[in-house]
Amino acid sequence: MKITIAGQGECEFSDEFSLLDCLDDAGIDIPYSCRGGNCGACEVRLLSGEVEWIQDPCYDVQGKDILTCSVIPTSDIEIELI
Ligand code: FES
Q: pTM for the whole thing?
């Protein structure tokens, strides 16, 4: 599945544990801290596509925002750093 990061580039998700791992492996400069859904540092806006939550975050996300450490894509997606 193709991941497009607005203004930053693209990468391909295969079977990484999380979207964050995929972005990290691709060398995308993406903020994160806890990797466990607690801090909100990895929050990005989902512009298009679908994701599945793989862990239940303590951090409360707003609207269409997602935590890259806590989701995997289930379609091609486009995200924007916020
Ligand atoms: S890195 Fe802390 S919520 Fe994702």
A: 0.95
**Hey, which of 38, 44, 65 would you mutate to test ligand 1's pocket, going by the most ligand atoms within 8 Å of its Cβ?**
38
Which CATH architecture is the domain 2-81 placed in? Roll (3.10)
How far apart are the C-alpha atoms of 28 and 21, rounded to whole Å?
Answer: 10
The neighbour count for residue 76, using CB atoms within 10 Å, is 15
Surface-to-core class of residue 70, CB atoms within 10 Å of its CB (0-12 exposed, 13-18 middle, 19+ buried): buried
The pLDDT tens digits for 39-76 are 999 999 999 999 999 999 999 998 999 999 999 999 99
Question: Phi/psi at 30 (nearest 5 deg)?
Answer: -125, 130
Task: State both tokens at 15.
Answer: 């079977």
Q: Which residues line ligand 1 (CB under 6 A)?
A: 32-35, 37-42, 59, 67, 69
